[in-house]
Amino acid sequence: MADEIADDEPKPLGRCSVFTYGVGHMLNDITSACWYTYLLLYLTDIGLSPSNAATVTLTGQFADALTTIIAGELIDRFGHFKIWHGMGCLLVALSFTSLFGGCLPCKILGSDSPAVKTVGYCISAVIFCSGWSCTQISHMSMVNGVTLNPTSRVACVSCRNAFTMIASLILYAVAFFVFNKKTSSSQVDIKNQYQMMAYISIFIGAVFVIIFQLGTKEPSLKQESDGKRATATWTYWFKKVLYYQVLSIYVLTRVATNVSQTFLAVYVINDLRMSPSSKALIPATIYLSSFIASVLLQELKWSGERLKAFFSAGGLLWLFCGAAVIFLPINMNAFMYVLSVLIGIANALMMVTAIGMESELVDKHLDGSAFVYGSLGFLDKVLCGVFLYFLESYESADPVACDPAYPCFSVTRFSLGFVPGISALIGVVIAFFIKFHTSHPKPLTEPLLA
Question: Is the pLDDT of residue 385 over 70?
Fold first, then answer.
C-alpha cells in the first residue's frame, strides 16, 4: 500500500531539467541588475536631473506592471509559454542598448534638451520593461507545469535564483573592467562605457536563452472538451486568504531587494566615500554570497513550514543589515563588505522562499498560474515604482558634507536601510500567520547543482 502511494506522488526532476529551466531568466537577470544598480547613476551622469531620472524609472515600472497583467491573462488563456518567453527576450535585447547606449529620439530630432532626453529614455524604458515582464511571467508560471513535486519546484526556483546571482556577478565583473578603464569624464565616454557593458550583457544572456529554449519542454496544460484552455477565474484567487498573504510577502520581498539594489551604488560612492570600483565590488559580494546560499537551499527538503521559517530568518537578517546601513560612518566603510555578505544571504533566503510560497499557492491549479504570478508581479512593480520615484526625486546627485566619524542621514541611507528593513519585518509578521497545505518535506533523488 505504501508503494502505491509513493508511485502516485509526483516524481522529482533530474539535474538537467532543473538546469535548463534555471538558466531561462539569465538575460532578464543581467539586464535587470544593470537597470537597478546603474540606471540612476547613468542618467544623472549624462545630465538628467534626479527628478527626470526618477520619471524614467517610474515610467518603466508602470509599463512593466501593466504588461505583467496583460501577459499573465493571455498566457492563461492561450498558453505557449516559450513563445512569450522568446518574444520578451527579443524586446529586452533590442531596447537595452538604446536605454544604456544613447537617446535615439535625441539623434533623430537633433536635440539634447532635458525634455527630449527624458522622453527618449522613457520610450526605451517602456519597451525594455514590457519585454522584461513577458519573459518573467512566462518563465515563473512555467514551474508548476514543469513539475508538481513541491521540493523540485523549490529546487527550480533556487536554481533560477542561483543563476540570477551568476548573471549579476557577470555584470559586475564586466562593470569592474569597464569602469576601471582610464577615460575622460565626458558624456560621450560615459555613454561608450555603458554601451560596451550593454552589448556584452546581451550576448551572454542570449546564449542562455538558447539553452533554455532548446532544453525545456513546453508544459502541456489541460483543455476543455471543445479544445479551449481551462482557466481559473480571478474571483477564485480573490476568495483565498492565502493569496493575499503570499501577495504581501512577495511584494515586500521585491521592495526590499529592488530598492536596496537601486540605491546601493549611490550609497557606497556618495555616503561612504568608497572608491569607484566599490560600486562593482560591493554588489558583486552581495550576489556571490546570495549565489552560495541559493545553492545550499536547493539541497534541503521543503515544506510549507520550512518556507516560513527560512523566510523569517532572512527577514530578520535584513532588519539587522538595514539598521547597520543607517548608522555606518565613513571611517568604518570597510565594514560594508561584511554587511554585503549578510545582505546577500538575506536576499537569497527571502527571494527563494517567497517564490516558493507562490508555487505552494498555485499548487496543482496550473490553469491560473500565470494570473497569480502576473498579479503579484503587477503590484510589486507598481509599489516599487512609486517608492523609487519618490525616493529618487529627493536624492542628491552630489555627496553631502559629513563628519567621517558620524553617519549622514541622507535620503540614500533611508532608502537603503530603513525601507528594506521595515519591509522585511512586516513580511516576517505576515509569514507567521500563513498556513500551507503541505506539511511533510519530500526529498529529491539527486543534488541539482553539484
Answer: yes
> At a CB cut-off of 8 Å and minimum separation 6, what does 170 contact?
30, 201, 204
Task: Identify whether the C-beta of residue 156 lies closer than 8 Å to the C-beta of residue 359.
Answer: no
∠ CA 204-161-244, rounded to 5° = 130
| Structure-block grid coordinates of residue 439 | 506539511
**Separation of CA 21 from chain center:** 16
Q: What is the pLDDT of residues 15-40, one digit of tens each?
A: 788 888 989 999 999 998 888 878 87
Give the three cell numbers for residue 11. 516524481
What span, in angstroms and rounded, lies between the C-alpha atoms of 100 and 416?
24
Which amino acid, one-letter code, is at 356? G
Q: Contact, 40 vs 266, CB < 8 A?
A: yes
CB 119 within 8 A of CB 105: yes
pTM for this prediction: 0.70
Cα(17)–Cα(5) distance, integer angstroms: 24
Q: Tell me the range of 48-52, 137-141, 203-207, 435-439 where mean pLDDT is highest.
A: 203-207
Grouping H, G, I as helix, E, B as strand and the rest as coil, residue 386 is: helix
DSSP one-letter string for 66-119: HHHHHHHHHHHHH--HHHHHHHHHHHHHHHHHHHHH--HHHHHHT---HHHHHH
